[in-house]
Amino acid sequence: MAQILDIPALAPGDDVHHPLVVADVDVRGGDHARTTITFSNRTGQIVSAPFWAGRDEMIRGVAKGMLVQVVGKVTAYRDCNQLDAVSVRALPKGSVPLADLVPSVGAVDKYWQFIDEKRAEITAPRLRAVLDLCYADDAFRQQYEACPGSPGTGHHARLGGLLQHTCEVLAIALQISRVAKADIELVIAGVLLHDIGKLECYSWESGAFDTTERGRLVGHVVQGVIMLQRAIAQAASPPCTEAEQLILEHLILSHHGKLEFGSPVKPLTLEAEILHFADDASAKTASIAEAYASREFFPDGAGVSTRKIWQLDGRWMFKSKASFGREPGD
Amino acid sequence: MAQILDIPALAPGDDVHHPLVVADVDVRGGDHARTTITFSNRTGQIVSAPFWAGRDEMIRGVAKGMLVQVVGKVTAYRDCNQLDAVSVRALPKGSVPLADLVPSVGAVDKYWQFIDEKRAEITAPRLRAVLDLCYADDAFRQQYEACPGSPGTGHHARLGGLLQHTCEVLAIALQISRVAKADIELVIAGVLLHDIGKLECYSWESGAFDTTERGRLVGHVVQGVIMLQRAIAQAASPPCTEAEQLILEHLILSHHGKLEFGSPVKPLTLEAEILHFADDASAKTASIAEAYASREFFPDGAGVSTRKIWQLDGRWMFKSKASFGREPGD
Amino acid sequence: MAQILDIPALAPGDDVHHPLVVADVDVRGGDHARTTITFSNRTGQIVSAPFWAGRDEMIRGVAKGMLVQVVGKVTAYRDCNQLDAVSVRALPKGSVPLADLVPSVGAVDKYWQFIDEKRAEITAPRLRAVLDLCYADDAFRQQYEACPGSPGTGHHARLGGLLQHTCEVLAIALQISRVAKADIELVIAGVLLHDIGKLECYSWESGAFDTTERGRLVGHVVQGVIMLQRAIAQAASPPCTEAEQLILEHLILSHHGKLEFGSPVKPLTLEAEILHFADDASAKTASIAEAYASREFFPDGAGVSTRKIWQLDGRWMFKSKASFGREPGD
Amino acid sequence: MAQILDIPALAPGDDVHHPLVVADVDVRGGDHARTTITFSNRTGQIVSAPFWAGRDEMIRGVAKGMLVQVVGKVTAYRDCNQLDAVSVRALPKGSVPLADLVPSVGAVDKYWQFIDEKRAEITAPRLRAVLDLCYADDAFRQQYEACPGSPGTGHHARLGGLLQHTCEVLAIALQISRVAKADIELVIAGVLLHDIGKLECYSWESGAFDTTERGRLVGHVVQGVIMLQRAIAQAASPPCTEAEQLILEHLILSHHGKLEFGSPVKPLTLEAEILHFADDASAKTASIAEAYASREFFPDGAGVSTRKIWQLDGRWMFKSKASFGREPGD
Amino acid sequence: MAQILDIPALAPGDDVHHPLVVADVDVRGGDHARTTITFSNRTGQIVSAPFWAGRDEMIRGVAKGMLVQVVGKVTAYRDCNQLDAVSVRALPKGSVPLADLVPSVGAVDKYWQFIDEKRAEITAPRLRAVLDLCYADDAFRQQYEACPGSPGTGHHARLGGLLQHTCEVLAIALQISRVAKADIELVIAGVLLHDIGKLECYSWESGAFDTTERGRLVGHVVQGVIMLQRAIAQAASPPCTEAEQLILEHLILSHHGKLEFGSPVKPLTLEAEILHFADDASAKTASIAEAYASREFFPDGAGVSTRKIWQLDGRWMFKSKASFGREPGD
Amino acid sequence: MAQILDIPALAPGDDVHHPLVVADVDVRGGDHARTTITFSNRTGQIVSAPFWAGRDEMIRGVAKGMLVQVVGKVTAYRDCNQLDAVSVRALPKGSVPLADLVPSVGAVDKYWQFIDEKRAEITAPRLRAVLDLCYADDAFRQQYEACPGSPGTGHHARLGGLLQHTCEVLAIALQISRVAKADIELVIAGVLLHDIGKLECYSWESGAFDTTERGRLVGHVVQGVIMLQRAIAQAASPPCTEAEQLILEHLILSHHGKLEFGSPVKPLTLEAEILHFADDASAKTASIAEAYASREFFPDGAGVSTRKIWQLDGRWMFKSKASFGREPGD
Predict the structure, then answer these.
(1) Among the partner residues E244, E317, E323, nearest to A322 by beta-carbon distance
(2) Which of B22, D60, F107, F306 is deepest in the core (most CB within 10 A)?
(3) Residue F72: how many CA atoms within 13 Å on its side-chain side?
(4) pLDDT in tens, C259-279
């Protein structure tokens, strides 16, 4: 149990007896009832051979997000490996460190340092007071530095990804604010608050990233406003005026920029527009950088991606190797 | 001051000295700076001749929603009358009954009776408890029975229009629920809560219907959820579980049916889908009925409307006179 | 041959010698020519192993909609069963009751009772006369009570589904009509006529639901108008005026509500709008109810559907279990 | 009364006592009730000064499409002339030749010659038989050679415009058919039938082009199919098989190419696709040619059109004067 | 002639005898032929009373972009002033400084300094060589520092606006590049080249901003590539490889981000995506800042804009006055 | 090696030792790294069994477009054959004639004859001069007569397909031009130039059709303009004026008709609109004809296609067999 299974390196015939996370359980009813399980750790994931209905006692009680000890053998299935499991046994939560189960951004200190520096530069007392409700709260910080930027296959889908994304948005938004002569302090506040709803819309503690029921039924955009409302309501004294709170709520609500992307209102202030641009720029450029780094899309230094990339509206991306005369390593 | 000015009956040359509401103030800066004011009462509205910049002392301080005593004369301007005002003087708020200033649905008892009857049929204690937070509260009822269904030119744009619309949605939703074997009690709750956000997103007390800043920056869809959250937070004890509250929030949030219509999430439950259909059916059929009744769109029993109707996606509507052999009056 | 094969209960190794319908024949030409056959009965369907080109004498002459006696064995193919047939022999049409071959809504009396009751309430003589052309005709009624609401995987895809759908639309449309003060009799007529085109656009007699060539090349919306025209032309004397007929044609033509959904004209009358809403509400809520009831989408009382549901614009639906304090069984 | 009023040449102060068509009556109810009338003849149109409600006895009974003798004077209104009428008196229908009242394509013989030549080349007996139902019928031909290609401001909006458009579509479709090796005879039939519905969807006899109620509520696409059905039903013996009739119906129904352009089905055969392309090419190039020829869009040999052209999706069109070295007159 | 006419300050009755630019000539043919002229200088613009056809000798030969001496009187027309001209006489080009005729960004040194600093930081010799083709060329620089960012009513529509916009894009793009770890030198090159096509697509020398024929028929996106090709072809020796040139062409071509916004290809490299975001952020935030500063949209410190702003997709923008406790002047 | 392998006729068990083209190499990284190769010749294509990572020495260095000698055996994989290769060895380029490796339109003389005939009819000297830059150049002609109309699965995807497509567009465009009274010579020029960019955007010499990097990053629409610019710049003397060149560039740029189809500008001249229609008509009707002829979509004279056809916007096409009484062979 000491060692992490290197999933991408598995070959047919290899034995498995390792702790793995149940990343997904796919129950199919109807004409050919069966269940398959996707197992994962931080190195990758592998799908089980099907457990046919009636012959699936072994996985009775197994659910998404459980940590299990799996015993089995890798077999080849067409152009994939699959895991033919003979035993799937629950392990106590926490018996394997979370960082072994999912990818992570690594140490988060530099991110906090940047954020706290910018918070400290805010001169408006009521703006600082609002931000302190979250950012001066240790419980909030612990959650925020763990939360992924998205569950599954979106951008920044790593432990700490939300924090990293926040910093990227902050850096970009500050620059646009300077150019556009916007209210920089308000933009900082917008950046720091825009995605707080993700804390209750995503789950990650088990090692299986997922969207919570609240995430599906309310969504992180509106949930952010709910959490801000709640924090302000619970404050000893109102940290800001109602009109000011309204401006902050608008920043959160409009950050997706368009109704069809899930913002119930379009950005109506300069600061809201800036927040939207910076958020989108961080998300899209991170998606490209992740695609460039992925052996799935760009194996062997390919120029054109091997397939369309859905996170990027189905584009075939291109990786330029033009040096323009620079020496390698410049 | 006793009598209401009959605006549609005005002709050039008529004198005006009557109380009117300032329905709109249109300040135009730039190359030809000037202000025009739209005056209204429940019979209609009339636009002033322009007050040119530099010659507009008479309207200093006049703002949307004020009640004013206007003295002037009607003049002809191309294919409209305009009001050439020589005096515009503020009147104390409340010196003219609101019902003289804006159209209204009339007595609201029958609407309350229907709603309260349906509330009483709910057997789920926690659902009733949530609804009581609003519907057993006199302040809420007073606001709710006054609020228009929309500001300006949308459907049910009358005092009490929201209450009337709620009853229409309720009647339709109950029937769809029966057909679809949905959870009828949950649908009732959804109907009664779906538009509560309008109370803080529209203003009407002055006699000039308007959208509040909260209405623009947050919108009534999200505002409904905020108000529900607040009401539950302020209750002596939690009227329902968190999971149940989530279901109610989803009903409110998804009632516009599509992201591009301002719902940040699509309806994901049968009950949410029903609520959306019933809401839309009430709104659209009311818009048609209002167009049919309007002399602007259907003067003199016209068959085809005289112009496109924007509330109905720009359709030219048609009013059938086919009797199919029925006697008039059947 | 007495007993119906329970397809969902089949397991690899099981023997099959049962009557089945040829639900689909998939001939693939080109580089790897082969044919597969989907066999079905009312319990479900199963796909054959491929018959390779040149080795497919056994299925010579087998076509969609044939009733065949199949002898073979069930084998496992990855995550499905498939049927390895060794004999496929045509059976005489009608040798197995249709109700054993396809799902059905069951007894239809209650549906007819509701429809005939509403027809009887119509006071307009010429409207009744038009409806009688269809609804007082036994041949029409026999077809209408059998026709599915849609072929394949749409809503109400069962024998009698069209009749059931008609009743749902009727119930909903009546209620909206009351709320909107529409011409209820005209709405009833619209509901009863709106889908008559399906009788010539779908086929079901063989046990394999399908779209006819007319269904593809003309579509049920326009076909309904053609059938109405024909029925009126063949009547002994004109049952209504030309202007009245036009109103009815418009109801049929516009019932899909939008051009992009296949209505060549948008609803231009209040009654047409109501019909569209009621039709859509019945279709969409039935789709949700069918998804809720399906073990494919909601196995084991799952909260979130196991996959996107294309009939519902690709939504992941959610099944709430909130009781709000009701006792089970309330 | 002998001479046609030259409307574009009118100047303020000119007297009018001429026969004119009532091209439109715009009744405005509501706050400033009044009526304006648009008068026209084949040279152009002019709008009346408003007739105010209560002072409009002179136009009692005047309706769209009436021929009237107008007495009045031209006055200037901002950047338009208007007609200040002192008498508007009905004239007997037909007292002025239709060709003096509306623009026309002129002699139609050459169009008939082309069409009849192509009909004569058809070898398929049943295809000729179907076309003869229309094209060998004198009443049909008389209507068809008068009908405009569109009412109001669309393409080919002239007496005979439909016939001219039909010839253009025919010439283009024949060429595409040759290139695509399509069934040319079927394409000819499709061209000759595709717009027959316009005969009952447009009106022009009065001198005021308009869309009929049938045109609004059913549309010429579906109306074409209805008319074909009727013609075939009334034939002494069926001119073609049902399967063949279906192919022709599909050609008519799909000729707008897309659902959102009013075809309830997309073109599914090669011949239907060709018909759609040829129809669209004739319509769009005619719109451009008409814009090029219009002094409104291209006064004084302008290069860029003076405004966006809505018939061409709001494009600013451009008229090239590049000679590439040709002598003028080449 | 020494003094610039203060157009926004004009009032009816004022005399005009000043040099003005012919900003637009609107010739209307058809039924009421007449011409109106829009006159402008850097303070604003005013429209002439109509010159009726036949009475317009005074403006014979007057064309868009001419500098003219206008004599006339201001008259009131409804809610605008208009200029009743009695003499319109051509002045020699250049007799009034361009900066008196159109708005300008002022001194451009700081913009050049920023750009040249960034150019100097580029280490890739072939990238610098390409940029030098433009940016080391004095003729190019003179044009580039004058060209507006857009003609008419778009963003940065001032002399020097293109240069200012380029700097804004550069500042933003540099920051996104750092965050996304992109090739910063390539991004700088993309920024400096992306809008060079505007030099041949806009005209401004006369004092009337306009789009050239090339601007309409080719567009600045493609024109930029054409100009880059030409510059490289004319260079003494090829400044970069063909593959490198391709990467630069792609940056220019894709900078509008989407096909429907006029880019014939979508951004396929990280650097192209960044350029697109930075360009869009500069354009949109400038549009908001310009709206905020405009007395037309925000007179008298209004919170909500007085009308929809088309440059911002028809949004009603909002100007927050929330101080969050800051002292005025912070 | 003399004989071409008949790929569609292969059956499991067959031996292969034949020259084949590497049509595609699909490298998949990530959790189950492996490579598959698609081999092709003019009869069709077959996919290899996967080469697993670590066991793929045999295909080291094999790249798209290589000509290889393959030794292996055909095996069955579910509903396809696959090729289990035991040796893949590079062959010298050109050792197999290109016409054996890819489909072709056959002899091209008739196409050239038609084009050269039309060129000869052009009277405008400067138009001929421009066309001669390409069409009087042997190198251009050799490339042009080989280039496919599209790479992969689009229309005219055969050697010589571009030339064939050009002739189709020419024939159609000439006819529309006659109907619309357009400048026929200009239209001819537009047709002959519109797709010249494909010469540098597609590659075909190896026997594997592909899109070049220039094809992806610039696209053939813009590339055509670049090539025209270059040809004109390199001419001994300018063959036409700049204004004339602009008109030609616009024809090329706008030939896709809409921004969302990759034209950066919409057609603004009559001739550009005609070119767009003719191009689209040739492309779409060729796609239908190719689908009709394909055993994949229409095996065994099927009426309805066996699946949706993506080249035709996902339509299910229909092949009519209506004879309308013609004798077979008419």
Answers:
(1) E244
(2) B22
(3) 26
(4) 999 999 999 999 999 999 999
Residue B155: what pLDDT?
87
Chain A residues with a Cβ under 8 Å from any Cβ in chain C: 26-34, 36, 50, 52, 54, 77, 213, 216-217
Chain E residues inside the 8 Å CB shell of D304: 213, 216
And the tokens for D150? 């569109």
According to DSSP, the β-strands at F210-211 and A80-90 are unpaired
Question: Using the beta-carbon criterion (under 8 Å), do C79 and A213 form an inter-chain contact?
Answer: no
Interface of E with D (CB under 8 A): 26-34, 36, 50, 52, 54, 77, 213, 216-217
C-alpha–C-alpha distance, residues E75 and E77, integer Å: 6
**Mutate which of C265, C320, C321, C326 to test chain B, going by most B C-beta atoms within 10 A?**
C320
Contact A54 C11 (CB under 8 A): yes
Cα distance between residue F292 and residue C158, in whole Å = 34
CB pairs under 8 A, 24+ apart, for C116-122?
Answer: C118/C170, C118/C174, C118/C188, C119/C188, C119/C192, C121/C185, C121/C188, C122/C185, C122/C188, C122/C189
Least CB–CB distance from F266: residue in D123, D168, D315: D315
| β-strands C80-90, D15-28 pairing | unpaired
Whole-model pTM: value is 0.93
Which subunits count as partners of chain B given 3+ CB pairs below 8 Å?
A: A, C, D, E
Angstrom distance (rounded) from CA F161 to CA E97:
59
Chain A residues with a Cβ under 8 Å from any Cβ in chain B: 213-214, 216-219, 221-222, 225-226, 229-230, 233, 243, 246-247, 249-250, 253, 259-265, 268
Residues C272 and C254: beta-carbon distance below 8 Å:
yes
Give the separation between CA C219 and CA C210, rounded to whole angstroms: 13
For A261, list phi and psi in degrees, rounded to 5.
-100, 10
Chains F and A touch, contact meaning at least 3 pairs of CB atoms under 8 angstroms apart: yes
**Dihedral over Cα of E245, E247, E253, E259: its sign:** positive
Q: The complex's ipTM?
A: 0.92
- pLDDT tens per residue, chain B (330 residues)? 447 899 888 888 899 999 999 998 888 766 667 788 999 999 888 989 888 777 778 888 898 889 999 999 998 776 678 899 999 999 998 899 998 999 999 999 999 999 999 999 999 999 999 999 999 999 999 999 999 999 977 889 999 999 999 999 999 999 999 999 999 999 999 999 999 999 999 999 999 999 999 999 999 999 999 999 999 999 999 999 999 999 999 999 999 999 999 999 999 999 999 999 999 999 999 999 989 988 778 877 678 888 888 888 889 999 988 899 998 755
Identify all chain E residues contacting A247, using CB atoms and an 8 Å cutoff: 320, 322
Rg, chain A, Cα only: 23
Distances D13 to D16, D51, D84 between C-alpha atoms, Å: 10, 19, 10
CA A140 – CA D321 distance, rounded (Å): 70
D182-223 pLDDT, tens digit each: 999 999 999 999 999 999 999 999 999 999 999 999 999 999
Mark whether A and D touch (3+ CB pairs within 8 Å).
no
Contacts of F266 in chain D (CB under 8 A): 313, 315
In this structure, what is the dihedral angle of CA atoms D126, D127, D128, D131, given to the nearest 10 degrees?
120
Tokens of F240: 């036409």
How is chain A split among helix, strand and coil, in percent rounded to 5? 45, 20, 40
Q: What is the mean pLDDT of residues E83-104?
A: 92
Neighbours of chain F (3+ CB pairs under 8 A): A, C, D, E
- Please report where in the chains the tokens 């998949």 appear, as a residue: F28
Helices (H) and strands (E) in chain D, counts: 11, 8
